[in-house]
């Protein structure tokens, strides 16, 4: 039987005249349920973030996927869910798979710097990146979305192939084959040497970006080989004409002239190598590919601004 709303002192004391006691109790109950749900979700947030980061290779995209997972949780009926951690892992994996597939069609877009209203945690990002390993990120970026998901979920997080197959919408046998192909690629790379090579690239690129941001001409010249060559396509040059600069002093002055853009740039893995990317408002506009010799001197810089060339690049941002 419906209980009619009562207007009286009790209701007025609550500040909501005409609102039934039943309605208020229901609201309080819903709020309590949401608090319990939020508390349960927070227990698994770090795990979900780790899964998403290994799948996506981008902290920003990982946080976005976790947030999307929370929204899906709040809109779902989980009364019959026996293992919330497994349920959430499946959801964040599906969300990540959609992002990976979307990248194949729009590779210029998944490079946003930070989420509105969310503060970055550089220390947490660095720790998570180290746990994954730059060498592994390089290899994972060469896999198809399905191969990457099968390998990460099964080999790194021990999810049963039957569950992984459910995420992918494929048979268990087909999912095993995907993971096997991915595993061969991962094992086929000499990871210690590759990790050392990427670490050297990152050290050089970090120093170059820092000197460019600071407008430190002396530091830039020290990083550049005496015969360094910089090439830039027409889209990367204000004049609209392709340009070539030669020599440490000339290239260093060019970097100083671009210090403002350097302030908004960051490091990324571009086709498996460390590079500098400029992506204001999350849209990739310029990539600087650096080539360094064994002495750590930069011998060549390729500045890419051509949208067609940018679309062909595989880009994964690196935490600072």
Short description:
This protein is an alpha+beta fold and 320 residues long.
How many separate domains?
3
* Share of β-strand residues: 5-15%
Number of strands: 7
Q: What overall geometry do the principal axes of the alpha carbons give?
A: elongated
What would the average pLDDT be, to the nearest integer?
79
List the helices and strands and how they pair.
Blueprint: H1 9-13, H2 21-56, H3 59-74, H4 84-105, H5 122-132, H6 134-140, H7 145-156, H8 161-168, H9 172-187, H10 191-214, H11 217-223, E1 224-232, E2 243-246, H12 248-257, H13 259-262, E3 265-270, E4 273-278, E5 286-292, E6 298-304, H14 307-311, E7 315-317
Parallel strand pairs: 1-6
Antiparallel strand pairs: 1-2, 3-4, 3-7, 4-5, 5-6
Describe the structure.
It contains 14 helices and 7 strands. Strands 2-1-6-5-4-3-7 form a 7-stranded mixed β-sheet. The protein starts with 8 loop residues before the first helix and ends with a strand. The protein is 57% helix and 13% strand. The longest helix has 36 residues. The N terminus is likely disordered. The protein is elongated, with a radius of gyration of 25 Å. Helix 7 packs antiparallel against helix 8 and helix 7 crosses helix 9. It is an alpha+beta fold. A hairpin with a 7-residue loop joins strand 4 and strand 5. The chain folds into 3 domains: 96 residues, Rna Polymerase Sigma Factor, Chain: A, CATH 1.10.1740; 57 residues, Arc Repressor Mutant, subunit A, CATH 1.10.10; 121 residues, Roll (Nuclear Transport Factor 2, Chain: A), CATH 3.10.450.
